Amino acid sequence: MHDLLSHTLVMIGGYFAIMNPFANTAIFTAVTAGMDDRSVKKTAFSAVVTALGIVLSFILLGRIIFDFFGITLPALRVAGGIMVFFIGFDMMHGRTSAAHAPASDNSPAEQGQNIGISPLGIPILAGPGTIAVSMSYSATGNVQEIAINALVFSIMCMVTYVFFLLGEKVEQKLGQEGLKVITQLMGLILSVIGIQIGLEGIFGAISLFEQHHAS
């Protein structure tokens, strides 16, 4: 029970850090500036539903994806750990990681796109780092852990939705400096989580190597 609780708390911390509702709320208010309340709510809902659908797919199908591509758990954890570390490293230095940023500076609305789906849903909320973390948490194939993983991410999407709707109030309360400090703190947490995931992958790879040579 204690191990399960610890694992759940790690999931919560990991998702909160990589989705960073505070910083993403600033992005949301910027790209929805000038919209009426109904459009803002619709965009926020579209963003979190897009992220939820994408990440839940990887959470639930992670084991199938592993088997299909012949990916081992240690390989995923090493690669995911490196990716998550560098995303956190960028956040610590006040930069937006390219993995969780729009591919172009052009306004999505001007291109006729639904900005709730892109860039808000993907890659800002459901970027490669989020997907790597979600798959790492479900990689063991334990049904209980997969269920908790899906639940935690669903709750985080709900929290993000509330932050989006309260965007202007959140920005006013925290200010630019407050958002910067929180983002840097989330970056530090994320970097540590990335290193932890990577170390688990390295130890797992060593164990697989030893088992291979012993057989």
UniProtKB/TrEMBL annotation:
Name this polypeptide is given: UPF0056 membrane protein
Pfam family, one: MarC
InterPro entries: Multi_antbiot-R_MarC
Predominant location category: membrane
Family note: Belongs to the UPF0056 (MarC) family.
Lineage of origin: Bacteria, Pseudomonadati, Chlorobiota, Chlorobiia, Chlorobiales
Organism: Prosthecochloris marina
Keyword terms, alphabetized: Cell membrane, Membrane, Transmembrane, Transmembrane helix
Topology of the protein relative to the lipid bilayer: Multi-pass membrane protein
Residues spanning the membrane: 12-31, 43-62, 68-89, 120-140, 146-166, 187-209
